[in-house]
Amino acid sequence: AQKITQTQPGMFVQEKEAVTLDCTYDTSDPSYGLFWYKQPSSGEMIFLIYQGSYDQQNATEGRYSLNFQKARKSANLVISASQLGDSAMYFCAMREVYNQGGKLIFGQGTELSVKP
Amino acid sequence: EAGVTQFPSHSVIEKGQTVTLRCDPISGHDNLYWYRRVMGKEIKFLLHFVKESKQDESGMPNNRFLAERTGGTYSTLKVQPAELEDSGVYFCASSPTGHLYEQYFGPGTRLTVT
């Protein structure tokens, strides 16, 4: 069964607007972490933001915030004030502490295109 | 502080040949992971080292793939013999000891098998 689901293969957003990239997950592990990575066309994987399952507040890192809704098992990434350089592939990932050890489980990715 | 480095950045080989990919993790990181992304598909876990020991190799596709981590430092991933379906981008990542630290990824090695 798919553990991380990103339902948006591609998204467009106008420069300076906010955009939300969806991510839902499935786990029975009570302790887990959720991550978002950015992969620009150059290919490297850039860590953006992390949310722990026990964190009470939504994580924020600059223009990135994670809308964590535990009951719904969703961890959407919100990018505010989009910039042209935000155009890239975005991956949501999960790390289950007890069930799966340290490995990351990735979603299929969402390709974001920022329009000028 | 140097990041995770991988060598080569790109490798083109013929079916049946052997290729060895190398990963140098961030100094002091005990955890080292290998992942790969086959064209158009999601990134998939291959294996996890803790220091020099294989903690989890459940993602290794078959016995044509052999990973080592000498002395708990750098790691190599050998594919022998390579098949067409092995083409993709191979990522290495490292993280310090602890459960929920983010993993720092290397730039990846793009492997093309013709």
What's the main sheet of chain A like? 6 strands, mixed
Shape of chain B: globular
Q: Structural class, judged by helices and strands of chain A? A: mainly beta
> Any idea what the radius of gyration of chain B is?
13 Å
- Helix fraction bin of chain A: under 10%
What does this structure look like?
The complex is a heterodimer of chains A (116) and B (114). Chain A has strands spanning 4-5, 10-14, 19-21, 24-25, 32-39, 46-52, 60-61, 64-69, 74-79, 88-96, 105-106, 110-115. Chain A has 116 residues and is mainly β. In chain A, the strands form three sheets. In chain A, strands 2, 5, 6, 10, 11 and 12 form a six-stranded mixed β-sheet that branches. Chain A starts with a strand and ends with a strand. Helix content of chain B is 0%, strand content 50%. Chain B has strands at residues 5-7, 10-13, 19-24, 31-37, 43-50, 53-56, 65-69, 75-79, 88-95, 104-105, 109-113. Chain B is globular, with a radius of gyration of 13 Å. The chains are: A mainly beta (116), B mainly beta (114). Chain A binds chain B through residues 31, 33, 35, 37, 42-47, 50, 52, 91, 93, 95, 97, 101-109, and chain B through 31, 33, 35, 41-45, 48, 55-56, 59, 89, 91, 93, 95, 99-100, 102-108, 110.
